[in-house]
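During the first year of the project, the team set up a workflow for recording each protein of interest as an amino acid sequence followed immediately by a discrete structure-token representation. This format lets reviewers and collaborators read both layers of information side by side without switching files. As required by the reporting guidelines, we include two representative entries from the current panel. The first entry is reproduced here exactly as it appears in our internal archive.
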Amino acid sequence: MIRPETPPAPDPVLEARDAGFAYGRSAPVLTGVSVAVTPGRGLALVGESGAGKTTLLRLLLGLARPTSGRILYEGEDLAPRDRARMRHFRRGVQTVFQDPYSSLDPRQRVGRIVSEPLRSLGLLDGLPSRDRRKETDVRVAAALYAVGLPEDAASRYPHEFSGGQRQRVAIARAIVCEPRVLLADEPVSALDVTTRVRVVDLLAELRETRALTVVMVSHDLTVVATLCQEVAVLERGRIVEQGGTAQVLGSPRHPYTRRLIGSVPRLPPRRR
């Protein structure tokens, strides 16, 4: 009996390869970190405060350069001096920050906030002015619809929305240029429990409908288990365990991972 061949795994879309980082002459924040972001699969970066998660996210975003090792996008090193290459990277990799209250400019209407990547990346520069404005409005409306906000939200200001709605605006801004990868730094930690669930459901829906690859920093292991198929555990700037989320969280091998899971608060049992 001839068994069908297993299809080869897809190449990583975004990758840190033996990456290290230090601020000046201080002790390294990251040492020998290697993670690969596979298209269509969510990756969570977990660990205690100070473990290096946000620093690694900054490297993957191209906001900082590793002091050792490499960051690759679509198999090529990030090249900050290559403007065309970095514009291609910025279109393919977008981010959502933790605090929806500080990440949106209160002086601008939502429509202008959401359309910012289209302008900064020059995605519509080849169109005549009138057509460019029309296409911008169409894309903004589509992004707002995708995150569950009405079209008239474009004419309003951030302060007119709740925290959960503001985070939806931030997500709309991130997806308006149709990126391949969404990097999210604690995207729901500033929200109440009910709103948190809705935003996580939204991110899961966008991942499915847009083939969006999500890389997320999170302290909330419940969110990690819901949204990400893979997880990397960082302790003091090193990855101590990584693999499938069900395997790592269900049968952790490293003592640090076991302590991390054991520290998740649980409700006491009800008395009969």
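The second entry, processed by the same pipeline in the following quarter, appears below.
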Amino acid sequence: MAEPGTLAKRQSDALDRYNHAVANFERILGQRRAQILDRPLPNLPGQALYLARNGMMSAYKDLTDALPSRVGRPNKFAIPPAYFDAEREPLLDEYTSLFDLMDAPPANAQKSDTPFKDVVDLAIAIARARGLDETNAEAAGRISLGMFFAETNGKQNVGNARSNKYKGSFQTGPSEDQNGRGKWAAIKKSIAALDPALSLRDDREEARVGNLDHRFNHWTAVRDGLMNAHAELFPQIAAIAKTLPNPIDQIKLFELIQIIPAPTKSALRSGNLLSYRVSDPTIMGYLRNNSIFAFGQADRARTSATFREILDAMWLFNDKFERALARFDEIKAGQKG
């Protein structure tokens, strides 16, 4: 771990903090592994694990800022090497495996055999009902599939080891789910006229879900999640694409509707989306709680950011969105659902 020669105190302190952060992450990984096997899990078992991972990445960024020579090889998670030591890949593999276990769907969850195609089909149908042409409706499908990967890594009906409120394929709370159901009911006739087969599928899923929490039926969870907040922005997709031609940036913007809805809508209304600045400490806290400006002292010290800076700081989402785009291309080619 040591550099040749004598380390300056700042460099030595950064190295000590990183070693401590790695040890803490390993310790909490071990605790959760043992608890899953032998003991009841604590409330919100994923939160301490998430913070420990962030702590390790933050300490590594501080270390590479102090010792640029410590920036190593690329890693399989596509995390910028200045933020993550590729030698620690096994720790993130275990982190992901533990979250898969802690976020597992409840036994009565109603899965779909075509979860990815469902997202795309619902988004396109909703977009067409909102008046979008074929090209922009397809963009709505692509964006929505990206949000599914952002929220759950493309896994349906999951719980949430970091929250007792947000659940299901689109990670909505009870009030958001109810709001989406009401908005869907208002456009159901238009959907039926545009796509009778999809409307019939919806009727079957409604009958199937019965009194179960709609968030644990994949179809209704996606439908209501999209209707809750995103469908109202679908008519702006053409204008958004002019400002953000990169498809991944488009998905990031819609994901920000999940994370910081009010500022994102204000930015869209401002007429200068990319230069719109967020400075409210609460909003900056929401961003950090979603791995944006969360790593390293320099980023965590930020008191404001433009939307261009926010989009650029969402690099931890990039790998998920790349996989979502690849899956979308497969669906459009008729290969997978």
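For the second entry, the following points were noted during internal review. The longest strand covers residues 277-278. The mean pLDDT is 95. Both points are flagged for discussion at the upcoming steering committee meeting.
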